[in-house]
């Protein structure tokens, strides 16, 4: 394995050489893009409704509706 001591990181957004100030990105713009993606991705979590048909032995104890008495 030929390992280089000086590893050049590339911007994960546009694959350019990353800037020391915005590592691992090349610019603030790409950093913002990644941040926006991350935020939108974390906020746009699809409703994971896993209906595996579990045994729900929960009997709802709701009292029968009492008819309003009119005098
Ligand atoms: Zn970039």
Describe the protein:
The protein has 71 residues and is mostly helical. 23% of the residues lie in helices and 0% in strands. The chain is built from one helix and no strands. The chain has one helix at residues 28-43. The longest helix has 16 residues, at 28-43. The protein is elongated. It starts with 27 loop residues before the first helix and ends in a 28-residue tail after the last helix. The relative contact order is 0.10. The model has no long low-confidence stretch (mean pLDDT 80).
Q: Report helical residue fraction.
A: 10-25%
- Roughly what is the average pLDDT, rounded to an integer? 80
Radius of gyration: 28 Å
Uncertain residue ranges: none
Please report the number of helical segments: 1
Spatial gap, N to C terminus? 93 Å
Percent range for β-strand residues: under 5%
Overall number of strands? 0
Shape field: elongated
Which distinct ligands sit in these coordinates?
zinc ion
Order of helices and strands: H
Task: Give the oligomeric state of the chains in this entry, treating copies of one chain as homo and distinct chains as hetero.
Answer: single chain
Largest sheet: none
Structural class: mainly alpha
Features:
mainly alpha; 1 helix; 71 residues; binds zinc ion
């Amino acid at each position: 394995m030929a390992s280089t001591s000086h590893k050049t990181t590339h911007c994960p957004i546009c694959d350019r050489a990353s800037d020391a100030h915005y590592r691992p990105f090349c610019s603030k713009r790409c950093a913002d893009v990644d941040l926006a993606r991350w935020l939108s991705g974390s906020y746009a979590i699809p409703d994971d409704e896993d209906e595996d048909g579990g045994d729900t032995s929960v009997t709802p104890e709701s009292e029968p509706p009492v008819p309003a008495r009119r005098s």
